Amino acid sequence: MIFIITGPSGCGKTTLVKRVLAEIKDVQFAVSHTTRKKRRSEEEGKDYYFISKAEFKQMIQEERLAEWAVVHGSYYGTSRIEIEKKGMQGDLLLDIDVQGAQQMMERYKKAIFIFVVPPSSKELERRLKKRGDESPDSIKGRLESAQKEIRCYHQFGYIVINDELDHAALELKSIILSTRSRFESRKKELVPILRGFSEDL
User: Fold this and answer.
1) Pick from 12, 2, 1, 9: which is nearest to 160 by CA?
2) Please, are residues 51 and 34 in contact by the beta-carbon 8 Å criterion?
3) What contacts 88, CB < 8 A, 6 or more positions away?
4) When comparing pLDDT for 138 and 65, which is higher?
5) 5 and 100 in contact (C-beta within 8 Å)?
6) What does the pLDDT average to over 8-19?
7) In the chain, which ranges are continuous DSSP H helix?
8) What is the pLDDT of residues 56-99, one digit of tens each?
9) Mapping DSSP to helix (H, G, I), strand (E, B) and coil, where does residue 25 land?
10) 39-64: per-residue pLDDT in tens?
11) Does domain 2-30+90-200 have CATH number 3.40.50.300?
């Protein structure tokens, strides 16, 4: 199953995704491509694939991206190969922006779409400032984008309010684990169990 996790910049979706990856087995992370500069805490190939604008535009032209968008002046996108390859290994998480998630709704209709929201606009502003790597103009731009993105909440099947991190992480993990118990997800495991009962009768 593909899980699309999105929300306004600074809502904490990346932190939540890292918690899930550390605590649930058989979950893969789809690493996106971006043209923005790498932050000190980020690793190439683990957090993002950092590439040039020319390389990114070539990927667009060759239709190698499942989704992409320009966010705050930088390009972000997830390759089709990344999704296909890692999706074969188990559940797959995508941590992408709202524009990208909306594109995925058209292409991956069976995916689970989760919208992460901050508890308030003031808290979102505080978190953006706490990063320490954003200029006042950049923070203002992200807050303006958040005002528009937050209105898209009704398009998503699940809402996680990231007020208290442990509780929000628990909600996100619960969505993933409960989805694994759906009939469609358990069908392959169920067949041999049912066959065994038939043989016993």
Assistant:
1) 12
2) yes
3) none
4) 65
5) no
6) 89
7) 13-23, 53-61, 80-87, 98-107, 121-131, 136-149, 165-180, 183-200
8) 999 999 999 999 999 888 999 999 999 998 988 889 999 999 98
9) coil
10) 888 889 888 999 999 999 999 999 99
11) yes
Token pair belonging to 12 = 């904490």
57: left (phi over 0), alpha (psi -120 to 50) or beta: alpha
Measured from the Cβ of residue 87, the count of other Cβ atoms closer than 10 Å reads: 15
Identity at 157, one-letter amino acid code: G
Average pLDDT over residues 89-118: 91
Domain ranges of the chain: 2-30+90-200
Confidence check: pLDDT of 110 > 60: yes
Nearest residue to 105 (alpha-carbon basis) of 78, 67, 141, 140: 67
- The residue with tokens 């390859």 is 85
Bridge partners, residue 117, by sequence: 161
CA atoms within 13 A on the CB side of 24: 25
